[in-house]
Amino acid sequence: MQDAPLVRFLDRSTPPHITTLILLAGLSALAMNIFLPSLPNMTAYFDTEYSLMQLSVAIYLAVNAVLQILIGPISDKLGRRPVILGGIAIFCLATIGCLIARDAYVFLAFRMLQAVIVTTMVLSRAVVRDMVPQDQAASMIGYVTMGMAVVPMIGPAIGGVLDELLGWQANFWLLLALGLALFWLTWRDLGETAKKSALTLGQQFREYPELLRAPRFWGYALASGFASGAFFAYLGGAPFVGSVVFSLTPSELGLYFGAPAVGYFVGNYLSGRYSARVGVNNMVYWGTLFNAAGIALNLIVMATDYGSVTSFFGFVIFVGLGNGMSIPNATAGMLSVRPHLAGTASGLGGAIMIGGGAALSALAGALLKPGTGAWPLLWIMFITSLLAIACIRFVIWRERQLAALDGG
DSSP readout, 94-125? Predict the structure, then answer.
């Protein structure tokens, strides 16, 4: 087994401390959802339609997906450290743009630019894979992405309170302060972990077909994409369900909105604790089952007219639990199909996940209208959860097939 690398905190001549990796992943998650309880007030501020402001989620995710395709090969060529630092710097400038915007379209333009912070999420995972082998990577990624669980758990609640006390802009002032602090921490602590590729950048991008021809890569990527698709649909639709269907205030919506993060935190802990022992495929499979079960229970309760704000957000905890188990392990699987292309795999896999999430987020926002209740959102979430189960079952079948061929 590969020895654990030497790590000294705030020493950029060694690999980064896990605390830095957790914070890198956490800021990316916070930028995605802290302002969601403010969407109704932002709609009023910019004197526009809710559907337009909701694009601040869908467009952000779409740009996020495109960037991930570029980030992986660029970091494989240039290294993780300069790409992460550059991403944080651009994010801080874009956040200032969001703060000074006086028009909804100008705001959306800077919001799109903010998506560059996905660099920190993608490359924190690639850094882990640079440092340790697959099963250990799944465990470590589980701990790293706990930052993506804790932050969404408290982010919308903080955002809702800040909105009521200081206005929606307070959320973006907080993002700016955190971005500047994280830039300093990354500069001090994150030593380079990648062995820079000898290929040109153009040759790096031409490595994509090697991944695209790998059935297991697709199985892991789509399992992760469909499992997280339920959560991204929730991101796009839950603000409407909370504010319109259940008449919640921004602060109340912020508290309820973080419900899936409770499950995600537990799922990440289970991944960190048991992935190396149980194996990535089993963890992904059980995660997708928990994901689907939570949504199915939500549908059943709604159908029996016992649905309430507590049941709706409560059952979504199972979506978080399933995602916390499946995403770190599917990610470790993706990065291990072709280990020499870890950065490229992280970017492409993330693009598939986030791109699908952008589409599902926009679809949920488009289908939810006064009078529809939560039904369109729940059905989108349920269908994607079933597809996630099918994808990981394909990976399990494919690995058995390869093992049989090797044995023969």
Answer: HHHHHHH--SHHHHHHHHHHHGGGHHHHHHHH
The rounded distance, in Å, linking the Cα atoms of 102 and 115 is: 20
**Cα 237 to Cα 185: distance, rounded to the nearest angstrom:** 35
Domain spans of the chain, in order of start: 18-194+204-407
Place of tokens 């492409």: 348
Cβ atoms 319, 291 nearer than 8 A: yes
Here the contacts of 101-109 (C-beta below 8 Å, separation 24 or greater) are 103/46, 104/46, 104/47, 104/48, 104/52, 104/53, 107/46, 107/56, 108/52, 108/55, 108/56, 108/59
Q: Which residues contact 44 (CB under 8 A, 6 or more apart)?
A: none
The Cα–Cα gap between 345 and 71 comes to 10
* Per-residue pLDDT tens digits for 241-293: 988 889 888 778 878 887 887 888 888 888 878 887 888 999 999 999 999 99
DSSP state of 161: H
CATH of domain 18-194+204-407: 1.20.1250.20
- What is the value of pTM for the model shown? 0.72
The rounded mean pLDDT for the chain is 85
Distances (CA, A) of 2 to 132, 266, 275, 389: 7, 27, 17, 32
Phi-psi region of 279 (alpha: psi -120 to 50; beta: other; left: phi over 0): left
Mapped onto helix, strand or coil, the DSSP state of residue 207 is: coil
Which element (helix H / strand E) includes 356? helix 342-367
Q: CA–CA separation, 287 vs 263, rounded Å?
A: 11
CA distances from 297 to 2, 236, 292, 312 (A): 43, 21, 9, 10
Considering Cα of 114, then 137, then 128, then 210, what sign does the dihedral take? negative
Residues in the chain predicted with pLDDT less than 50, given as ranges, are 1, 408
Nearest CA to 56 among 71, 72, 45? 45
State residue 36's pLDDT score: 80
